[in-house]
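CORE FACILITY INTAKE
Project code: CF-77B
Contact: R.S. (postdoc)
Sample description: multi-component assembly, four entities in total
Requested service: structural model of the whole complex
Turnaround: standard
Below are the sequence entries exactly as provided by the requester. Do not edit them.
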Amino acid sequence: MGTIERRGIMERLDNGEVVIGDGGFVFALEKRGYVKAGPWTPEAVVEHPEAVRQLHREFLRAGSDVMQAFTFYASDDKLSNRGNTASQKYGCTNINAAACRVAREVAQEGGALFLGGVCQTPTYLSGASKEDTKEIFRGQMGAFKDEGVDFILCEYFEHVEEAEWAIEVGLETGLPVACSMCIGPQGDMHGNSAGDCAIRMARAGAKIVGVNCHYDPFVSLEAIKLMKEALERENLKAYLMCQPLAYMTPDAGKQGFIDLPEFPFALESRICNRWDMHRYAREAYDLGVRFIGGCCGFEPYHIRAVAEELAAERGRFPAGSEKHVVWGGGLKMHTKPWVRARANREYWENLNPASGRPYSSAMSKPDNWGVTRGNEMLVQHAHETTTEEEDLVRGIKGKLKMACCQHHQETKKEADLVAAAQAVTETA
Amino acid sequence: MGTIERRGIMERLDNGEVVIGDGGFVFALEKRGYVKAGPWTPEAVVEHPEAVRQLHREFLRAGSDVMQAFTFYASDDKLSNRGNTASQKYGCTNINAAACRVAREVAQEGGALFLGGVCQTPTYLSGASKEDTKEIFRGQMGAFKDEGVDFILCEYFEHVEEAEWAIEVGLETGLPVACSMCIGPQGDMHGNSAGDCAIRMARAGAKIVGVNCHYDPFVSLEAIKLMKEALERENLKAYLMCQPLAYMTPDAGKQGFIDLPEFPFALESRICNRWDMHRYAREAYDLGVRFIGGCCGFEPYHIRAVAEELAAERGRFPAGSEKHVVWGGGLKMHTKPWVRARANREYWENLNPASGRPYSSAMSKPDNWGVTRGNEMLVQHAHETTTEEEDLVRGIKGKLKMACCQHHQETKKEADLVAAAQAVTETA
Amino acid sequence: MGTIERRGIMERLDNGEVVIGDGGFVFALEKRGYVKAGPWTPEAVVEHPEAVRQLHREFLRAGSDVMQAFTFYASDDKLSNRGNTASQKYGCTNINAAACRVAREVAQEGGALFLGGVCQTPTYLSGASKEDTKEIFRGQMGAFKDEGVDFILCEYFEHVEEAEWAIEVGLETGLPVACSMCIGPQGDMHGNSAGDCAIRMARAGAKIVGVNCHYDPFVSLEAIKLMKEALERENLKAYLMCQPLAYMTPDAGKQGFIDLPEFPFALESRICNRWDMHRYAREAYDLGVRFIGGCCGFEPYHIRAVAEELAAERGRFPAGSEKHVVWGGGLKMHTKPWVRARANREYWENLNPASGRPYSSAMSKPDNWGVTRGNEMLVQHAHETTTEEEDLVRGIKGKLKMACCQHHQETKKEADLVAAAQAVTETA
Amino acid sequence: MGTIERRGIMERLDNGEVVIGDGGFVFALEKRGYVKAGPWTPEAVVEHPEAVRQLHREFLRAGSDVMQAFTFYASDDKLSNRGNTASQKYGCTNINAAACRVAREVAQEGGALFLGGVCQTPTYLSGASKEDTKEIFRGQMGAFKDEGVDFILCEYFEHVEEAEWAIEVGLETGLPVACSMCIGPQGDMHGNSAGDCAIRMARAGAKIVGVNCHYDPFVSLEAIKLMKEALERENLKAYLMCQPLAYMTPDAGKQGFIDLPEFPFALESRICNRWDMHRYAREAYDLGVRFIGGCCGFEPYHIRAVAEELAAERGRFPAGSEKHVVWGGGLKMHTKPWVRARANREYWENLNPASGRPYSSAMSKPDNWGVTRGNEMLVQHAHETTTEEEDLVRGIKGKLKMACCQHHQETKKEADLVAAAQAVTETA
């Protein structure tokens, strides 16, 4: 970790290097006690910067080349949505600036880059105008620019239109802009294919495009594959990035893991292990992805597995490998001889882990509402959901059941099914 | 968290309070990049105290009333076992003292107690004498005493004999001594029943007795139940403590999760969720357990779930509940209406989570070696396992297979089966 | 099949031979369209004797040494219970006599013995007197005697008291009497242990005792093991018989598969395959069981697997092996080479079959009512259940839910848990 | 069953009626002891006609409108393939004629039609010429014509080319010809799409086209859907027929259940229950399929479920419903009140059955060899596979493993994935 170098993101990629991203802050910090599931906003950067700093350090140690400031959902509209008081207490600009400072501090400890990110907004979902939506992005981007981020990431968009608008604002900073959408092989919520989304992101000016969140690594790579093919067809040059979930989601529909019944408080049995991540890193690399990271569920050890799988290509192991011998080698030091016998790649690569849950099944049926921008139920509200509203939703849920099944069968497209199949295909 | 009070552990228990323990440091810090799986020793307290401190703070915030210094396996023999250089680099005393200081610092931030712990030793397993084994414990206990711990915990013993010796050394400090064994309802590795183990721990002078590690919460409570009945039968007074795994282990045999094929790198699909911990906390409380904590796999949010379940009994919520509404209430602030519909207890309490793994089964077959103290293969070695030794183990493994199956069927006793059944019984 | 010999059942057993029973007629003929699930009575012997004859022939061909007349539930009270008109249409005696004739005819084709059986009665369950209950048995036994059966089987009793009464009536015929109960390792519905049940059956005069129905082969063998130990303890001589389900039931409670949610119309995914039956036959033989057959779910090919596993001990293969090479050898003649590669024991013995059902779990939660003789809900009625009664039952079911869980946990005894564990232990 | 009417197959279909087929003879008779797994040839029609007759009667009673003579694989080349001596013992013509006579006899008992069928041949697979292959078909068709069958079925073809040749021979008889292929949504082994296969079968002269065997009902219906769309696109008129497996196969690849590791001796846990068949019948009917039957695994009760689901459309219940009340109604006569509570549609329609197998997974990985016509390994041989050949296959299997995975991922097309998804989508 000794070398202090600050070559930019584009220099690194143009040089043929693999850039390793970090993991998921909202889920990791929710489990550590600093983020509230539901609003998922990052006021922890002001309230408990030491906790955020520690998580950055762990990812740095695990091999991350970039420190992404914890600015997820830190737009002014989200910070005041449905009972959230973070905007009022701390202010949008302060939160974004504080996040940048923590990220920068840790990045400087290890020669990493640092960046700020924006994502989908309640404003857009409520049906507001292009200019109103862009103003929301400008609220965050200004802070990024002031704090000297190395590049901008627009991520977690369900609609490519909103992604384009975010890219446009990002470009106003003069910095390189990357953009990833939370879509699978089925494409976005307006019916644009994954390939078309990639084309539009690249044409809007993003130098790096891809997907993040919503699907497991293997479903996500299917989407990336479709993006790659589309870009090549159109002779567009853009680097590919992939930052998937660390939860297995072969059964997720168009809105990804949000719709799984286990979201967000019972996903444990779906968590990928480190060997899944070795496979992910290898398949991503072979597909040509050069920005390889993670999203919700990715803990430092998952990123370390990515860095270890690609150690030969990158010419180095991450600092954290000081405490981890590849493919379970550390078990050679275990007290019990039969555990020492597991200290090899063949053992772990071929193991199908049991769940220890005899009453649980392999797959769930997602909710599959398919509701999107323009639907009344998605409009932003400052107050928390009332009981009356909850009852309404449940009633609608009942009625939609049959219709949705129908809808589901009709819209389930080949691409997401390829992804689903991939997701359950293991190398064994 | 405002009140600064330092009433001792016995005062609290005598006063009828529930004391909430913390979670598992070795597994949590392994995932964060600071502990090596295999040796599992805690030199991180010297190498990266900020990482250890942060984890203490998270447990404090989650509701832990005690900060256990990260001294697991920090005995001089273990720190130099099978290639481990920690002893040589830092020294056993330094490691134990450093761990105490970090724990004390955080404890003082929140009115918590702090303690030091010792556990099973390679010395005992190698067949050494009582006095040699006790000397190993004294190496750690001295540091605990010097650093002013509030009480001593002897934990993770597979043989009640070694536990007794540890208690004896603990009592030399003049401090209260708690003791828990890593056993299930089947009892210890020498064939002593769980009830007899409790009796012997209490008679040796432990004021608090119970189990930790090796089994999931529900199997562990079965062992505790047997202990409770035995203590009552003998009119022995001791408080009960339970600090189980956060991994589902209905299929584990006599050596617990160590023998499961997924140990230690593919346990993800077995991780308990927060609702499992609500059930655990309630069942533990109803059984009369008053020291309720966790071991490997327990993350801060698991401890918070325990504290939230017992909020009424304790008269307070933990600090971390600032970011967590009980029973999923935070989802009322979610953007999607169908996720808002999950903001209630009934939903989460009745959900059987899917694994997302169509090629995985519900249960595994444990290794079930049943090898214990005195066996050649368990003798301590300073060097790492060689390839020759590994081959030998695999060869023996093959030969033992049939014999072990036989053995397994004969020794599988009622108590661990009760536990196994409990483990898979859910409230739905 | 050529040798025509009619040595009696006791001669064969005294000679150290293994007697192979047949499979389950009610379930097999329900699927073939001749028996009604619900009443389960055998009027098919009058209505469609050719269908019953064919099934007898298949079992004979598969290796059965005894042809059990299809007289299950053919007592006069059952034939007129809850809307059943069979008694009125055909008469109890006619049904039993017709069943005997069909069985005898086929038995004579292959040197097999033939027998008549009685089982639990609505009369007993309604709380009637000993004499009234015995009169019901006499109604069937008279026909058996007249038709010249080789021996009597009293089977499928949930209460050892009723079994004793049946044995007493059986002995009045002067023929050898066998008796098996539909219990698992937990014992009968009145709280008598499996061991005590065996002792009482033997003392009542049964020469062959054991279990049938309600549990899978491996759970059933656990019950048999307890019976064997009890008989040895008391120095009682009786041969052991086992005629289990061909459905996997590791999760069944005290009333067996009746209480599983899948009973009786969705048990398919639990059906044992022929390799499970090889294991069953071997384990039964090794335990000393010498009357080895099957009950509900056992099809001819399951019995053939038993006969093939014990071919060396018996000195012969069954006639049906003309169309079956042991351990999959017939696949050597398959068109596809990769299927030919499965023509060996190792392949089949180590295969854990997938269910092809990603939404299904490994285990179910049984109903566990635990209602028994004397309960108002069990009293015999001539009319079918009315809607009002159904509603009542559902209401009670809701109320009993919590209480039953409680009850379940308290009464779940070691023996049935041993059985449960056995049931899920495979040789792989 | 009273009405004796013999309107032809085309009259019935042209009249808008639903024709219900029968189930699978080879698998049913293998379990009953009369067919050998591996060669799967139907010499039982000569050796044990009473067993074949009884199975016909059960299907008739279950609602089948057509009795298919048991002539599967009864071509002269197959009857003498890989050690089979049936051709030599009985002669191809005798077997086909005997099969027709048994089918006709039972058909006449219930106003059913009767037909003869041909299927894929070792001759074609060995790469023989068109004329040689057609001669093989003529060997069977002659017997069909002589025995007066009502129509001809060409079925179980993996290559549409061979299906066309069979249809051509069939037309020579002057009878109506139906044709179904054992393909899924992926199409045939030569890469022809399911839609193209339907077009070619219709153009070759088949009046009824569809699929049989190899996939479960829901995957099969996906293939049918593609066929229907293609026929409509080309303005071709042909009735649709579907005769799928009664085994769940969401995980099967291009060669269907043959490639699943459980084939053919461990498929039990995949068996569809009667409620699955209700859903199949409804979905088939709604898709426009008017020849609805089953193949391997379909037992009489499965066919009865089809007939009961379509009772309103057909204006009658099958004879076998005398012993079956729709949707579990017979349970109203059960002794236990909690079982009586299951006597309703809602209960069974929403039940996800457990497997009772905690060590088994939801899905398997198919072998996926993808070897087809022209490959050396598929050439016909008169002798049984030798040990040397077996070793060779295993060796090849190992080497092909990596290549096949690759192949599998590349060839896994959208259509079969749609089918796979459908297969696991249940109505609940």
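Facility notes:
- Chain C touches chain A through nine residues (CB under 8 Å).
- Confidence is low (pLDDT under 50) at residues 398-428 of chain C.
Invoice: internal transfer
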